[in-house]
Amino acid sequence: MEPKNFKSGFATLIGRPNVGKSTLMNHLIGQKIAITSNKPQTTRNRIQTVYTSAEGQIIFLDTPGIHKAKNKLGEYMVNVAERTFSEVDVILWLVEPTGFIGKGERHIAQQLKKVNVPVILIMNKIDTVEKRQIPGFLDGYRELLDFADMIPVCALRGVHMDRVIRAIFRYLPYGPKFYDDDTVTDQPQRQIVAELIREKALRCLEEEIPHGIAVSIERMQERGDKGIMDIEATIICERESHKGIIIGKGGAMLRKIGSQARYEIEKMLEMKTNLQLWVKVKKDWRDSDYMIKNFGYREEQG
C-alpha cells in the first residue's frame, strides 16, 4: 500500500531531433534504455520508462524528435510525438542553449500553446556555452510560452538531474504505482536488442546511410541451461551500395557493428551472447506502411 502522499503520473520528453532527449531519460532512469547517437532520427518509437522513488513514480515517454516529415516514417514519428501532448501530466521540452530560436522551436511552441498541461523547459548542453550566457538564452524562450519551470542541465554529465525530478513531482497528481519497483521499461527485450544493434550501426556508419536502416530480430533464444543467448538479426538498408558499406571490406564493418552491439546486449541481458548479423536490401522501406509496421513502428503503440 502506497503512503497517502505518493504521487504518480506521466511525463513526456519532446524537442527537435538530437537535443539529448534519450540521454536525459537514460540518466534520470539510471539505465540505458533509449539508444543515443549524434545523428537525428535516432529514436523512432515512443519509449516508456519508469522512475520509482519513495516520493512517487514517474512514467517517462521518450518521443521521436519533432521535425518536418520527408517520408511516411517521418510522418509516423511526428504523429507519435505530438499525440503524447494530451496524454500526460507534464511536458519536458528540451532545447539547446542559443540566442537564436529557429522555426522548428517556434513550431513546437505553437503546438504547446494548444495544450492544457504544464510545460517545463529543459535547456540541455549547458556545458557547451559560457555560464553568463544562460540567463539571456532562457529569457528568449520566456517570450514564447508561459513555462511552469525552466531548468538548465547537462544530461551527458548528469548536471541538475535532481532539480528535474523535483520539478516533475511538483506537477504530478497523488495516486498509486502503475508498475512494480523493479520495472524500468515496457519495451520488449527483442526491441531493445534491435535498437542496440541499430545504435551501433548509426555510430559506425557514414552520414548518408543511417536514416535508411532498420533492424529485424529473426531469432532470439536461450541455449538450454548454458546461459548463452543466440540472436540472429538482419540490418535492413535501402540500396545495394549501402549494403556494401555496411558489410565493409572483407566483412570488417559488420564485424565491428556486431562486436560493439554484443558488448551492450551482454550487459543488458547479463549473459553471454552469440550474435549473428546479416544485411538485406528493401528498397524505399521508409515509404511503405507495411514495412514500417513490420519493423516495429506501430502508431497504436504510441
What does this structure look like?
With 302 residues, the chain is an alpha/beta fold. The chain folds into 2 domains: 7-170, Rossmann fold (3-Layer(aba) Sandwich), CATH 3.40.50.300; 189-301, GMP Synthetase, Chain A, domain 3 (2-Layer Sandwich), CATH 3.30.300. 33% of the residues lie in helices and 22% in strands. The protein has 9 helices and 9 strands. The protein has helices spanning 21-29, 72-83, 103-113, 134-142, 161-170, 189-204, 240-247, 252-269, 289-294; strands at residues 7-14, 47-52, 56-62, 90-95, 119-123, 149-152, 214-222, 228-237, 272-281. A 6-stranded mixed beta sheet has the order 2-3-1-4-5-6, sandwiched between helices. Strands 7-8-9 form a 3-stranded mixed beta sheet. The protein is globular, with a radius of gyration of 20 Å. The two termini are 30 Å apart. The relative contact order is 0.15. The model is unreliable at 34-44 and 298-302 (pLDDT under 50).
Write a concise keyword list for the protein shown above.
2 domains; 302 residues; Rossmann fold; disordered C terminus; 3-stranded mixed beta sheet; GMP Synthetase, Chain A, domain 3; 6-stranded mixed beta sheet; globular; alpha/beta
What top-tier CATH class of the largest domain fits best? Alpha Beta
For the record, the CATH architecture of the largest domain stands as 3-Layer(aba) Sandwich
Radius of gyration: 20 Å
The fourth-level CATH homologous superfamily of the largest domain is: P-loop containing nucleotide triphosphate hydrolases
Q: H/E series, N to C?
A: EHEEHEHEHEHHEEHHEH
Task: Calculate the terminal CA-CA distance, rounded to whole Å.
Answer: 30 Å
The helix/strand class is: alpha/beta
Strand order of the largest sheet: 2-3-1-4-5-6
Strand content: 15-25%
Q: Give the mean pLDDT.
A: 80
Q: So how many helices?
A: 9
General form: globular
> Largest sheet, if any?
6 strands, mixed
How many distinct beta strands?
9
